């Protein structure tokens, strides 16, 4: 699974690095280093919402409070 998090200006101001931190913690805590690739990205087109994320080519938006639930909804066996 590949997860991209926008680190562009708008998303940075909305907390993209907090979202990245939550994902990193989830990956480490659950030993998913081989299953999940986390990457930074620039604009994913959801600038008017929360932080833009892309999970396996599906664009969404998230906050640090809901990003893990969004990941879990798209994942089987992770």
* Rg (CA only): 11 Å
The name of the CATH architecture is 3-Layer(aba) Sandwich
The CATH topology label is: Glutaredoxin
| Strand element count | 4
Q: How large a portion of the residues is in β-strands, by DSSP E?
A: 25-35%
Number of helices: 3
- Distance from first to last alpha carbon: 9 Å
What is the H level of CATH, i.e. the homologous superfamily?
Answer: Glutaredoxin
Shape field? globular
**Structural class, from helix and strand content?**
alpha+beta
| Overall domain count | 1
Give your account of this protein's structure.
The protein is an alpha+beta fold. Strand 3 (51-55) and strand 4 (58-62) form a beta hairpin. Strands 2-1-3-4 form a four-stranded mixed β-sheet. The longest helix has 14 residues, at 16-29. It has one domain: Glutaredoxin, CATH 3.40.30. The chain has three helices and four strands, in the order βααβββα. It has helices at 9-14, 16-29, 67-74, and strands at 2-6, 37-41, 51-55, 58-62.
Summarize the structure.
Helices cover 36% and strands 26% of the residues. The protein has three helices and four strands. Strands 2-1-3-4 form a four-stranded mixed sheet.
